[in-house]
């Protein structure tokens, strides 16, 4: 398959992820949509890497994976700390966290 | 010749299957109501992306994708979902702002159109010199990845170690039961059910709105006949 096909799939996944981040209120689902967007970007990185014959794109994907793992750990820690106090907290309630 | 055509078709077939898995899983991640179903759809999407990595000869990244994402990150999500017992009462769309859903759709679609346009237009116009030292080795992609990672990007790699350490320490500090790092009073416990409001005082309402409830009118009519008319005269000018 040509590179365009991968890029279109990546763009559609990114769109769906953006939509999810915008409309969902459950912080966990927002995080999952964020992972979706990161994966869409990873896919286009690998696609450009193979079409340009340059391993730099795959290096970028490697670091994105590491950063995504760290981000998920910290983000889920925050969500657990919040939801432990309030079971039904939504993203709107997280505005309480401002100083 | 025949083999080339055949392999191309197989690749295309696998691509179609992977794209279907990716897009269906993405929609499920965003649109399903149950949080566990969202997480499982996310797993499907990540597998589809891993298939696409394999199609593009990024075998190491495909393996890492399955191990790290599907094996660790989604398991973390499922742990949190089941640990906290999050139910599916989450309303799918914010109902208190009716204009929000169309706005979100417009924003997301315009972002997507922008990226698709860039993909369709820019593919044939990629500029810049091709890399000489970092070209792919399809048969041995791990070796090339390691070479470049530990030479050109070695500082970023070392900083990654710091990042992971900070993330682990931060997660432990955040989730610890009680500690000086978090002021738990910022998130008060849900308040108990409020006591039922005492019956409103009807005399006050008469003063405020000039409209006396019928109950009191009846009482007054029964008690003394003159009182309602007097009050009505007082109230009327307002």
Can you put this structure into words, describing what you see?
The complex is a heterodimer of chains A (99) and B (238). With 99 residues, chain A is mainly α. In chain A, α1 runs antiparallel to α2 (27-52) and α2 packs antiparallel against α3 (56-85). Chain A contains 3 helices and no strands. Chain B has 238 residues and is mostly helical. Chain B is built from 9 helices and no strands. Chain B has helices spanning 2-31, 35-55, 59-84, 100-122, 141-149, 154-175, 202-209, 214-223, 226-235. Chain B starts with a helix and ends with a helix. Chains A and B meet through α1, α2 and α3 of A and α1, α2, α3, α4 and α5 of B.
Summarize the SSE layout with pairings.
The complex is a heterodimer of chains A (99) and B (238).
Chain A: H1 3-23, H2 27-52, H3 56-85
Helix pairs in contact in A: 1-2, 2-3
Chain B: H1 2-31, H2 35-55, H3 59-84, H4 100-122, H5 141-149, H6 154-175, H7 202-209, H8 214-223, H9 226-235
Helix pairs in contact in B: 1-2, 2-3
Helix tally of chain A? Answer: 3
Residue stretches of chain A low in confidence (pLDDT < 50, at least 5 long) are none
Most extensive interface, residues per chain?
A-B, 79 and 91 residues
How much helix is in the residues of chain A? over 70%
Helix content of chain B: 55-70%
Morphology of chain B = extended
Task: Report how far the terminal alpha carbons of chain A are from each other.
Answer: 51 Å
Could you tell me the radius of gyration of chain B in angstroms?
33 Å
Structural class of chain B: mainly alpha
Q: Overall pLDDT of chain A, averaged? A: 85
């Amino acid at each position: 398959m040509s590179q365009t096909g991968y890029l279109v799939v990546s763009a559609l996944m990114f769109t769906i992820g953006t939509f999810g981040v915008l409309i969902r209120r459950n912080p966990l689902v927002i995080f999952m949509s964020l992972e979706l967007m990161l994966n869409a970007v990873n896919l286009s990185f690998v696609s450009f890497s193979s079409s340009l014959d340059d391993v730099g794109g795959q290096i970028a994907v490697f670091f994105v994976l590491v950063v995504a793992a760290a981000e998920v750990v910290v983000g889920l820690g925050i969500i657990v700390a919040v939801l432990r106090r309030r079971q039904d907290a939504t993203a709107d309630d997280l505005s309480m966290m401002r100083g | 010749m025949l083999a080339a055509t055949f392999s191309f078709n197989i690749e295309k077939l696998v691509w179609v299957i992977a794209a279907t898995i990716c897009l269906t899983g993405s929609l499920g991640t965003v649109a399903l109501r149950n949080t566990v179903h969202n997480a499982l759809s996310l797993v499907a999407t990540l597998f589809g992306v891993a298939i696409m990595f394999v199609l593009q000869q990024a075998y190491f990244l495909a393996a890492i994708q399955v191990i790290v994402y599907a094996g660790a990150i989604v398991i973390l999500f499922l742990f949190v979902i089941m640990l906290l017992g999050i139910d599916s009462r989450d309303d799918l769309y914010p109902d208190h702002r009716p204009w929000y859903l169309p706005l979100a759709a417009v924003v997301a679609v315009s972002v997507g159109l922008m990226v698709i346009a860039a993909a369709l237009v820019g593919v044939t116009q990629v500029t810049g010199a091709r890399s000489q030292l970092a070209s792919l080795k399809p048969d041995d992609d791990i070796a090339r990845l390691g070479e470049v990672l530990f030479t050109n990007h070695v500082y970023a790699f070392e900083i990654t170690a710091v990042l992971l350490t900070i993330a682990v320490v931060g997660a432990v500090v955040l989730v610890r039961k009680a500690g000086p790092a978090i002021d738990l009073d910022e998130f008060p416990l849900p308040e108990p059910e409020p006591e039922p409001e005492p019956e409103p005082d009807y005399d006050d309402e008469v003063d405020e709105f000039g409209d006396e409830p019928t109950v009191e009118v009846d009482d007054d009519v029964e008690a003394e006949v003159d009182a309602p008319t007097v009050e009505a005269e007082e109230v009327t000018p307002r």
